[in-house]
Write a structure and sequence with these properties.
Length: 439
């Protein structure tokens, strides 16, 4: 029995998990009913309802209804589970068949098989929505964007289709192709993508030099998987030896991942203070704080966009609320729920929402996202992957300028001697600080 615990912050095509067998599941004569009841028990005990409409009395009636039926095979039972879960107003609580569950376990290690998109089903519109393409994957290279809607998969309409069926159609043998019909705004178009097995390096880094000669440490985190924290630590340690003056942390189009990974990475930058609070269905609040072991105190700017979701929003919210740095870019996705993954009695799995999270200031960002300190649109014309994090990247360029201003302001303050009579210089610095604050 697996006991290791992972908390996930997105319940989509590829995600992090925690494994836990539920010993209290009712043992029934029909093994298919046992799986159904196992799912029911987990939801009854642990489900955190994001809509506020969940009633245990109704859920008890649902149990009686579904266990009164006869199931001749696992497919019927699995369909029943999905039908049962559709009564919950939560697109992130979903069932995975054994093969899907096993693939999800592999995904947490940083290896993904497919086209590199992460999707969620919008309960209100019933649309299949792409949270974000993963950088370096076929979907990313083909220009798929956050919030694109999938209208069809290989000419099969996605109307009424659940995530599990969509995943089955999108995934397939390596080297084969899948055709997606995409709706972006009011325009629809087709993209043919090759399926690949991709080993993702979570973090990339480099030193950029500004026009004024400042050395900037550029860090891009693509996903918060099990390796992300160590890779980030190694990158910061290396950049510190190169005497960078400050950091640009790029979380754009990062769909999230493991909760603990986002906390650890936040602690690399935040020495003390609240990082995130999680609130369970019973109102129990658990708060995570900095541990006094930040790797750098140098000025920081974080780049975010519409595809920055979940774990990315935890890091962004922690940095913003602690006034540790400035956020530059576009409003984030708005995913403020925490899921856990439970192993079911037959080897299948259940992703269930168990908590919501709040930023250090107590803000619930679910569906609303985080507004950056400085809002900057991306380039009108798409840029090449190799141009991300360069001066050809409009949002990076803006972030670098903001970082330069912070560094300049800090240098001016440190150089001011209060024992001199240079009052005009001091007032000028105060004025510049006030203008730059944007609070």
């Amino acid at each position: 029995m697996l006991k290791k615990k992972f908390i996930i912050l997105f319940a989509i095509t590829f995600s992090g998990i925690f494994f836990k067998n539920f010993a209290g599941a009712t043992i029934l004569n029909n093994s298919y009913k046992e799986v159904i009841d196992h799912v029911w028990q987990i939801v009854y005990r642990d489900f955190q309802d994001p809509s506020g409409k969940f009633k245990k009395s109704n859920w008890i009636k649902i149990r009686k209804e579904f266990l009164s039926r006869t199931y001749s095979d696992s497919n019927e039972a699995y369909d029943a589970i999905r039908d049962m879960l559709s009564n919950l107003d939560d697109s992130y609580t979903r069932f995975l068949e054994p093969k899907e569950f096993n693939q999800m376990r592999i995904d947490t290690s940083g290896e993904l098989t497919g086209v590199g998109i992460q999707i969620v089903k919008d309960k209100e519109s019933d649309d299949l929505i792409i949270i974000s393409p993963i950088e370096g994957t076929p979907a990313f290279n083909a220009g798929i964007e956050a919030r694109d809607k999938i209208l069809s998969i290989d000419d099969i309409s996605t109307e009424g289709m659940n995530i599990e069926d969509a995943v089955k159609l999108i995934r397939g043998q390596r080297g084969t192709k899948v055709k997606l019909e995409i709706l972006r705004g009011s325009k629809s178009f087709f993209k043919v993508l090759s399926r690949e097995k991709i080993e993702i390096k979570s973090v990339s880094s480099k030193v950029n030099q500004t026009k004024n000669g400042l050395l900037i440490g550029y860090l891009r985190i693509k996903q918060f998987n099990a390796n992300a924290s160590k890779e980030t630590k190694d990158a910061i340690t290396d950049l510190e030896t190169k005497k960078v003056a400050g950091y640009v942390l790029d979380l754009r189009s990062n769909p999230g991942g493991l909760l603990e990974s986002s906390i650890d990475i936040s602690r690399h930058f935040i020495n003390k203070g609240v990082i995130v609070s999680t609130v369970s269905k019973d109102g129990l609040k658990e708060t995570k704080r900095g541990n006094g072991q930040a790797l750098t105190k140098k000025p920081l700017v974080v780049l975010v966009n519409e595809g920055s979701a979940s774990a990315s929003e935890i890091v962004s919210g922690a940095i913003k609320d602690n006034k540790r740095g400035k956020l530059v870019g576009k409003k984030t996705f708005g995913k403020g729920l925490v899921q856990s993954m439970r192993t079911l009695v037959d080897g299948s799995g259940l992703t269930v929402t168990v908590a919501k999270y709040l930023t250090p200031n107590g803000t619930d960002i679910n569906k609303s996202g985080i507004i950056p300190d400085i809002e900057v649109k991306m380039n009108i014309n798409p840029i090449l992957q190799r141009e991300i994090g360069t001066r050809k990247d409009k949002q990076y360029r803006a972030g670098e300028k903001v970082l330069e201003n912070i560094i300049k302001r800090n240098n001016q303050i440190s150089e001011f001697n209060p024992n001199t009579k240079n009052l005009n210089a001091f007032l000028k610095i105060r004025k510049e600080n006030k203008v730059f604050s944007l609070n």
